[in-house]
Structure formats: structure tokens, C-alpha cells
UniProtKB/TrEMBL annotation:
CDD domains: BRCT_DNA_ligase_like. It comes from Flavobacterium xanthum. Pfam families: BRCT (PF00533). PROSITE patterns: BRCT. This is BRCA1 C Terminus (BRCT) domain-containing protein.
């Protein structure tokens, strides 16, 4: 077989290899979670699964799997939560080909559009009209963050056929949440312009937190401290830490995973659940761990 044929074979079979690996992992997870407990031997089996499929480590969603498993091994995420997260990823992959479909690509495109609009520090009428056209042409992104929020903002701005300066500033305030400009001076200028605007996006900025008898859930890997310490601090302030998101959850603390655009690919099982509950009318405040840590530091 020629080198070209071998390369083509790799391309054609890689998808089936990935599917087979996902199915084997899903079965392994189902077996592990069947008794509702996770022990060290079962985590060791996950380690072996990683070794067995290391050739796929640079491919989505396997890099996600590896990261989650490694974080569990280093005790950054509880084992039981890891099993749930991995199983959720398997279901995502199987149900809608989450990592390979147009949705992820289009959300990344939307991110790029917002970046481009903000890149000179000015948001003109034509840019808003063009963004509105793009949003209208991509309604298949309904229910995905941040499409819904941006679409709502744009429709509100255009509802009276006039674009006010304050509305441009609101857009800047929203875009800056997930766009980091290379021009630090321009970034500072935008920060100053939007300092009085409080945008409630995925994670609430400058949140007001009431601890007494409120329910808190933590998701993701924390860069500041660890879960046990944070949960103890929540208890000290009268809050109730829990392991899962439900209708009774008041606050979801989102760990920083080092990727400012993480919400555009896979933002996690608990965040997805919280967003779904918010759309159904339940008040769940999502707070970035850095903001929450600052609040804790001020109170303890």
C-alpha cells in the first residue's frame, strides 16, 4: 500500500476508531457508576483506558477526556463527578456529534465576528446591521450561549430604529466579556468606557452574594485553592454547598480552566444544566471563581 493510500486510510478509519473508543468508554462508565460509588481501582481502569487510546489524545473530544481524568487523578475533581462529566461528554458526542458539527464552528465564528467588531474600539451602525443579518441567518444557534444573549441585545437595540451611543457601550461591555484585544491601551479604554455597565452574561460580573441558607454548587477546576476549602468557607458564611445543580441551586461557582473562550465549545454538564434552568425561569447566579474568591476574602 502506498504512503498516500495509508494516509487516506487513516482519515477514513479515524472516525470509526473514535466512535469505537467512545462506545467503550461509555460502557466502562456505565459499569463504574452502576453501584453509585467510585473507588481507586475503577479510577485505575480509567487510567488504563487513557493509555490504550493515547494515539487519539490530540483529537476532540479525547483531549477533554484526558484533561478531566488527569484532574481527577490529581484530586482536583471528585471521582464521582468525573464519571458524570465523562458520561455527559460521551452522550454529547453520540447524540449530536457535538465536537464535529456546524454548531461549534458557527459559535467560534460568532466569537470572531464580535472580536472583529470590537477590534478598533468603535461599534458602527453598519457593523450592528451586519451582525444582525448574520444572527438572522444562523437561527440554528438558538439556545446556545452566547447567541441568545447577543441576539436579544441586537433586537433590543434595533427595535426603535435608532442606535444610541449608550447602546453601543452596552454592546462593548458584553463583547469584552469574551474578547481580549491585543492592544492593551485600547482594552483599557474600553474598560473605562464600560465601567458603569453591569452585564449579566454567563458569569455575573460584580455579583451580590447572599450566603445565609443559600445553595452553592462548584464546577470545573479551581485555580485558587481547592473545593474542600471553598465549601468550608461557604459553610462558615451560612451557605449550603452541594454537588449537583437543580431547581434549588442559588449559585454556581465556575472554575477557571485557562481558556477565555471555553463557553464556545464545551462549557460543561453543570453549566449546561444551570443555563437550561435559567431559561425555564429559575434564578441561578453563575459566578467566576476569581470573583467569588474575592468576595470570600472580603468576608472572612
Amino acid at each position: 500500500m502506498s504512503t498516500i493510500d495509508q494516509e487516506l486510510l487513516k482519515i477514513y478509519t479515524s472516525k470509526s476508531q473514535a466512535d469505537k473508543a467512545i462506545s467503550s468508554l461509555k460502557g466502562l462508565l456505565l459499569g463504574i457508576k452502576s453501584d453509585d460509588e467510585v473507588n481507586e481501582k475503577e479510577i485505575n481502569e480509567l487510567r488504563k483506558w487513557v493509555i490504550e487510546h493515547k494515539q487519539l489524545i490530540n483529537r476532540n473530544p479525547f483531549n477533554e477526556f484526558m484533561t478531566i481524568i488527569e484532574e481527577t487523578i490529581s484530586n482536583k475533581i471528585p471521582p464521582k463527578e468525573t464519571i458524570e462529566d465523562l458520561f455527559w461528554l460521551c452522550q454529547k458526542y453520540e447524540s449530536d456529534n457535538y465536537y464535529y458539527n456546524a454548531v461549534t464552528t458557527d459559535l467560534q465564528t460568532l466569537h470572531g465576528i464580535c472580536h472583529g467588531i470590537l477590534s478598533d474600539g468603535n461599534i458602527g451602525d453598519q457593523e450592528i446591521f451586519e451582525l444582525n443579518t448574520w444572527l438572522s441567518e444562523n437561527e440554528h444557534l438558538n439556545t446556545y450561549y452566547p447567541y441568545d444573549e447577543i441576539r436579544s441585545l441586537i433586537l433590543s437595540i434595533l427595535s426603535d430604529n435608532q442606535i444610541e451611543e449608550e447602546e453601543r457601550i452596552v454592546l462593548k461591555a458584553y463583547f469584552k466579556q469574551f474578547v481580549k484585544l491585543q492592544d492593551s491601551e485600547l482594552q483599557k479604554q474600553i474598560e473605562i468606557e464600560t465601567s458603569d455597565i453591569n452585564i449579566s452574561g454567563l458569569c455575573t460580573s460584580e455579583p451580590n452574594v447572599d450566603f445565609l441558607e443559600k445553595t452553592f454548587c462548584i464546577t470545573g477546576v479551581l485555580k485558587r485553592g481547592n473545593r474542600e476549602t471553598l465549601q468550608n468557607d461557604i459553610k462558615k458564611l451560612g451557605g449550603i454547598p452541594t454537588d449537583s445543580v437543580n431547581k434549588k441551586t442559588d449559585y454556581l461557582i465556575v472554575g477557571d480552566n485557562g481558556n477565555p473562550a471555553w463557553a464556545f465549545s464545551c462549557y460543561g454538564r453543570k453549566v449546561e444544566k444551570a443555563l437550561s434552568l435559567r431559561k425555564d425561569g429559575h434564578t441561578i447566579t453563575m459566578i467566576h471563581e476569581f470573583d467569588f474568591s474575592d468576595i470570600i476574602d472580603d468576608l472572612i
